[in-house]
Amino acid sequence: MTAHEIEEYLAPMRHEFADPRSLILPALKFAQGESGWLPAEDMAAVAEATGFSQAYVESVATFYDRLYIEPVGRRVINVCVTLSCMLRGSDEIFDHLTDYLGLDGEGTTEDGMFTLAKVQCIGACDRAPCLQIDSGEQIGPLEPADATCLVDDLREQPAPARYER
Amino acid sequence: MAEHDDGLIVLTINGREVRAPKGTMLVDAAKAAGIEIPIFCYEPRLGAPIGACRMCLVEVEGMRGLQTACSTPVAPDMVVNTESEVAKDAQDGVLELLLANHPLDCPVCDKGGECPLQDRTFRFGPGRTRSLEPKLHFPKPLDLSPLVALDRERCIACFRCVRFSQEVAEDGQLTFQERGDHTEIATFSGDPYEGRFTGNTIDLCPVGALTSNPYRFVSRPWDIKNTPSVCAGCSMGCNLEITEREGEVKRLTGRPEPNMAVEEGWICDRGRWGYPALRSADRLQAPVLADAVGRRNVPLERAVTEASGLLGARGARVGILLGDAVTVETGFLAGELADRVGGGTPAMVARTGIPGHGLGPIRALPGAQMDDIDGADVVLVVGGDPCTQQPVAELRIRKARRAGAHVAVIGPRPTALDASCEALRTTPGHLLDAAAVINERLQGSQRAVVLWDEADLAAEPAAAEAIARVVAATPGARAVEMCADVSGAGLRALGIPAAGDLLGALEAGDIDILLTIGTDPTTGPAGDRWAAAADRAGTIIEMATHRTGLTDRAALVLPMLAPLEDEGVLVSMTGRAQRLRPGAREAAGAAAAWELIVGITHRIGNPVPDRTPAQAFRRLAEQHAAFAGLDYRAIGREGAVIAAVPQDPGSPAREPVGDGLLIVPCAPVFGDAVAHRSDALEAVREPSRAALAPAEAERLGVRTDARVRVTTPEGTAVLPLEIDSRLHEGAVYLMVGDPSSGAARLLPEDRGPVRAVVSAAAREEVGA
Predict the structure, then answer these.
(1) Are residues A120 and A97 in the same domain?
(2) Partner residue opposite B189 with nearest CB, options A52, A53, A58
(3) Would you tell me how many other CB atoms lie within 10 Å of the CB of residue A41?
(4) A126 is in which domain, residue-wise?
(5) Domain-embedded: residue A135
(6) Residue among A40, A44, A59 whose CB faces B175 most closely
(7) Residue A42 in contact with partner chain B when CB distance is under 8 A
(8) A152 and A88 assigned to the same domain
(9) B520 φ/ψ angles, rounded to the nearest 5 degrees
């Protein structure tokens, strides 16, 4: 991702933001769309395109859990572990997924296909326990077996053209 | 009445009536009245208060909730309570939360004993915690840079270091990452925090999160003695504090009570971490006598007697060469010594440095102090590069720009200010062309400050004259001379001339004894000429801190104290006389230069009346108009500005000597002798080198990884090459400083304009 591409992406929306700092977030999201995470070069490009220091751009990126500054899998599976989901068995779902993916807790599979993460409430308590794939719809309520089926389905899907985290 | 005729606002703090000027923050108003409100993040030097730490919460009657005293301005009839139950409860609560993840490892923390967090916890804190949860733990420490260590768990997220980086040094490198319950200070992708001012974050840190790597675990506050003194690293004259333990300088810090007229409490990293040079391997530890018996160490007493014997011999023609960082007392006493040597044949006294012919008109401009830059509407930097030569001046200039001044940097060198200020790059050797632009920028200004570079304008007297005319015609405009030499302004005020005539006399064989005081002329400008000329004098007597090119040839070597160990007065580039106070004494066999001179005059049998630098200073103030009325008491802690010295009129333009490319001398900040001697600065040290524009390098057929041969009428040096697209063609930028590189030797004795022939170095030279 080059600074020029980011500038072109930002050009139509610049007028919407009174404070130019507000451009950093859409720029980071756009940059992350390419490789699914934010390598240092991409953050540097965002810094160049927005006119802020690289360190400042990184400080913004680190605040948001869904902006990844370490490599993640092609798909990120976010398992909600907040109260409603926990009471309805999110622990079992999470453990089932770690076993199925061959992970030891949160992390990325060796083939780089999946990243499994625990997240706080994703706003679908009525469908607890639930999970979310990237920035997609919340999926639930789930049985542990449903979760592993989901993984199988995802494996067969092609890589997305752009990553929406 | 809440507002008085004197414009002060009246309010009540803790039942006491307090007056403060409008706009004062509550915390300052209380402090002035002797009431302490605890703070961590508040620091006016970092810009507007941000109320990040919440430590200063106070109760204000009629206002909902508690207010942060650091960001609440005084208002008429305000009733403030800092000790009410509500306020105390808030202070307890804030401290309890600040300590929630703090490891309380004070017994092994470098800050322990001089830590605001520790002090305020004792004074304002709850005494015990209710928190049972485990604290955060990080691997420790993390090297933020080779010089600054970060203990993340100690950090209370006060923002001071981040604000310094973002808003004072403007390097934009430090930020907070993972904001929230895991907030930590970081740089982009964990890169080292690089800069010229990084150490100030250590001084600013109110806890033990940022500590100095070279000082880590070196000392505890109750084992040290702190002495306020002045940095002799450049002509800025920054005030600093020397930390001594067991006779060694262990640390240098900015002054806790800054000199707002000079450095504002900031010091550069070279000044801060240059002190290990005091104990480098080449430091002279004991006097050396070389005579018919051989070359051997002798006691200091014996060495002084030998020196007086040589210097006092009837008919001896003596030349005294003063280094650029000697105190004015040493300069004055050298003059006194000159009248007492040779059995009545007065000695020549000279200083290494720029003669300054032709700088008369520009030096006659009204002078400004560094704090005048704060209120300036236009700031012009003409020639030089304050960012590397007088680094702390850069922070003032940046501050002026933030306050709305128009800042233009005019000269042949790229500078660190170019990105944020107007950069007007001139062709090397053509500062005269800039006079028109300077005139344009000064139009309509009322409080302009022009900082001009001594070396650059001395090389172009015509430009100096033209610029002086333009500035003199601007009402309210004042000037600051960016002196090339640390003590240049002071020695000039004593009327000590530059060394050209002395060098001539040496070369003509008119000098029998050369006495050098705190200088190594063989590594400086015209080093080869000086070396040959010194050989023509039959006898060399050397007073020096470190080994020099003359040490092995000298009949007598007297180790002398460095400025951090010495007492005396240095005059900064703004003409401010400031006192050095001895912080430690590291070389056992060394003595102060002034003391050695006094001893020699006693043994010659014609003693000077002075026994201390204070007495010498009082006498020199009587004899030299510039220092009239000054003594150590008048200088005090803040320093005193000396009077301007009448200058000789301008002289005609000068032509560069030699053939080839014009040399633009540059002084990298971590490139000087101190940086090369200090092991603390090893990681950031910069080599002396030659730099060329890409097109020029191509024309000469030299590549980046190559070394080049640079030849001037003064000699030849083989130097690493740097290719930099920001440089002008038709010039070679010579980064001088490392005494072993021979780069400075290529310049003429008066540092005047010179051309150099640059070519690729032959293979055998590269090996060497």
Answers:
(1) yes
(2) A58
(3) 12
(4) 75-156
(5) yes
(6) A59
(7) no
(8) yes
(9) -125, 85
